[in-house]
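Example 5.3 — Phosphatidylinositol-4-phosphate 5-kinase type 1 beta
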Amino acid sequence: MSSAAENGGAAPGKQSEEKTYKKTASSAIKGAIQLGIGYTVGNLTSKPDRDVLMQDFYVVESVFLPSEGSNLTPAHHYPDFRFKTYAPLAFRYFRELFGIKPDDYLYSLCNEPLIELSNPGASGSLFFVTSDDEFIIKTVQHKEAEFLQKLLPGYYMNLNQNPRTLLPKFYGLYCMQSGGINIRIVVMNNVLPRSMRMHFTYDLKGSTYKRRASRKEREKSNPTFKDLDFLQDMHEGLYFDTETYNALMKTLQRDCRVLESFKIMDYSLLLGIHILDHCLKEKEEETTQNVPDAKRPGVQKVLYSTAMESIQGPGKSGDAMITENRDTMGGIPAKSHRGEKLLLFMGIIDILQSYRLMKKLEHSWKALVYDGDTVSVHRPSFYADRFLKFMNSRVFKKIQALKASPSKKRCNSIAALKATSQELVSSVSQEWKGEKRDLLTEGQSFSSLDEEALGSRHRPDLVPSTPSLFEAASMATTISSSSLYVDEHYPQDRTTLYSNSI
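Solution (predicted structure tokens):
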């Protein structure tokens, strides 16, 4: 099978198998996207930089691109189409915020043909990725594009307050109109780099209702699994060091609060797992396949927004280590329950689903048939809490859990100390039994004796008149097995002593 066919394009001689979206061939959609973005971004460079104003979020620019060309647009072999750009100045600000220069943006999107990806979801959307692995282009429905437009002011505010986020990073919203058909597309960051093989990929919602990959999906070379699959495959979860774990959970909690404030639900965490221990041979193959583009102007980052940067931000020690080593592609280091070294790539996706009337009706209907708390569609506050609880308790864990078992040396020292303490208790018990009558005849009441006994048992700073710890430790090696039960019989000895004294 050719590489074109593998990437979703049509192989030579099989043009009839080319995918279509709204009765439009995917090749025509890809061509129109590149022509439209090339024109609108190039035209935007002539506009001066300034602060983003409220009205900028609602601006829509439009240009007509006939197939024969015009004074402003080049000729092309696709049907005539109109290309709309939504909030161009606002999205220019978003791109600048993530360090994306206009020339690099144009080069990534327009220099090489776009590569079509398979869609594991049920939305029917088309996915394209740029040849340099930088950006994802996704077709969206009218309601999703409309919701993103309304979301932009709040999205702008959130990015200003906190650029460290696992939320999708939107770089552009466009619409192609041809033959009475509107095809809306959004340009986003690429969460899972293709140059890094993902041994496992999961789409996690924190829901269990029908959250298992279909048989058709499992037959793919790189399937995307779901929540029930993760619980079966990674039942012990994924482990991080304390600093990384805290940074990750803080980022997820903050992002979920933002989504809840926008009344957004049904989103997912897209999680890619690369097993470092399994990639020694793969690394050589990837090195030969990923030859850097000599024509590319300047040195560009592997990814504009890596997973590690999303949770820790630039300048952190862990992030510096990751970005300096390009082999890691900005992945988050982790370990499996078997101790395997992992690199994780993740991001929150599908956030353009608001809790509208149809979603409320869908949840009500499913709740009548199934357990309402297990279905994916739910009110935003409950969805966020369930999502976070699932990530915190089932998916991500602190690495200390792997180090709970003490070393053999530590086990031996603990056993010796336990035997020593039991010998001390045995000595004290024997002394109390032998000196019982002497203490009573000297006029000491039992109550004071009881206080002394309790004090010596619960106050480690009160040392009884017994051999030193050093001497007791040397004696511990010769203790018989019967001394292990002294601690259990000791309370009974005290009870006997109390009854006899009365």
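Remark. The longest strand covers residues 170-178.
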